[in-house]
Specification:
about 375 residues; Monooxygenase; Neuraminidase; five-stranded antiparallel sheet; four-stranded antiparallel sheet; 6 helices; 25 strands; F-box/kelch-repeat_ARATH; Kelch_FKB95; F-box domain-containing protein
Length: about 375
């Protein structure tokens, strides 16, 4: 490693130890302690902000999931990035990342997606990426086709942007109906270039083609419509659209995530965490969380789930406490019993932001 290590620190990281050995030691420290380590010295601060440390962690097979949230400020209308940060008192909080850009006020919640250690952001027709190891921003080529009602998902190293690109009118039942043609544009993160635009003209989607959510399962993009007749599945390899399976489409899932190949979402009305296994094509309820949902999320009107690593998810939800609106987050560990039943256990549940001025738009998990 010493051949690749640039001696760019102001002073030795650890006196009497070569810097490459010191980097090896720091690389093994849990990521949550990095903010504290950055206060030790200017050299440590440079190391924590450098890509060298994260490359070494990757070489050692030491990676962690970090959560970034897009929040909308109700007063200004601005969309900003926040990171889930563990405070010195042990509680997790959402902290604004000042070096990251605002998102266009016209962008929807699905306008950002993680790929590796980067998050790709799409504003109207412009696009950029930010590196979560250094919190630096880089512009990428603009989207070749303006779209509305976009959904953005990643499969492997490619980002798929799906949205309404063209509009035409068809005659139906003695009147004219507006029909949208779906465009699929693909950004290759390895070549940093857009692939040729694909347009599917025979999508049977009529007026108001809104999608309430989308996820990736088994290499396909599942787009949940606000009405059951506008829920579809897109297979990138075949470049083919299909109608969503009736069982999966039978639930109004929103704010969902996929963990270990299973889709999870918080059913606000029944106060349960539901799971859909595509291999078994059936829904089930995650056991062991009944008391938690009854006490903590009883009056929540929205929720967001996100993959938080192997067998884990994070659940964000609002709660009024001490007369103030707050956003809480719970880490839930998942385990499948020998009989196939899925059980959940709450590892922690904290108030992550508490001034009541923010709406949560999107949460993404990044591996660093």
């Amino acid at each position: 490693m010493s051949e690749n290590m640039e001696q760019s620190f102001d002073s030795p990281l650890i006196p009497s130890l070569p810097d490459d050995l010191a980097v090896d030691i720091v690389a093994r420290v849990p990521r949550s302690h990095f903010p504290t380590l950055s206060l030790v010295s200017k050299s440590f601060r440079k190391l924590i902000a450098s890509s060298k440390l994260y490359k070494r962690r990757s070489q050692l097979g030491i990676t962690q999931h970090r959560l970034y949230a897009v929040l909308r400020n109700r007063s200004t209308g601005d969309f900003s990035f926040y990171i889930l940060h563990k405070n010195l008192n042990g509680y997790n909080r959402l902290v604004a990342v000042r070096s990251l850009p605002f998102i266009s006020s016209r962008a929807r919640g699905s306008c950002c997606v993680p790929v590796g250690s980067k998050v790709y952001v799409f504003n109207d027709i412009s696009a950029l990426s930010f590196d979560c190891t250094s919190h630096t921003v880089q512009c990428i080529p603009d989207i070749p086709q303006r779209m509305s009602y976009r959904e953005v998902n990643a499969i492997g190293k490619k980002v798929y942007v799906i949205g309404d690109a063209y509009c035409h009118y068809v005659q139906e039942g003695g009147g004219w109906m507006k029909v949208w043609r779906k465009a699929v544009t693909v950004f290759d993160t390895e070549t940093q270039s857009w692939e040729p635009k694909l347009v599917k003209e025979d999508m049977p989607v009529s007026v108001g083609p809104f999608w309430s959510d989308s996820v990736v399962m088994e290499g396909k993009i599942y787009l949940k419509g606000c009405s059951k007749r506008s829920s579809f599945v897109y297979g990138p390899e075949e470049r083919k659209w299909e109608v969503m399976d009736e069982v999966l489409n039978s639930k109004e899932w929103e704010g969902a995530c996929v963990v270990d190949g299973v889709l999870y979402y918080h059913d606000l009305y029944k106060k349960v965490l539901r799971a859909y296994d595509p291999k078994l094509t059936c829904w089930s309820v995650v056991s062991g969380l009944e008391e938690f949902f009854a006490v903590e999320t009883g009056r929540s009107r929205w929720s967001r789930t996100v993959n938080y690593g192997p067998n884990k998810l994070a659940l964000f939800f609002p709660k009024k406490q001490y007369g103030e609106k707050m956003i809480r987050c719970a880490e839930i560990a998942l385990e499948r019993s020998q009989g196939g039943e899925i059980w959940g256990k709450v590892e922690w549940c904290h108030i992550v932001i508490g001034d009541g001025l923010f709406d949560m738009v999107k949460v993404v998990a990044v591996t660093v």
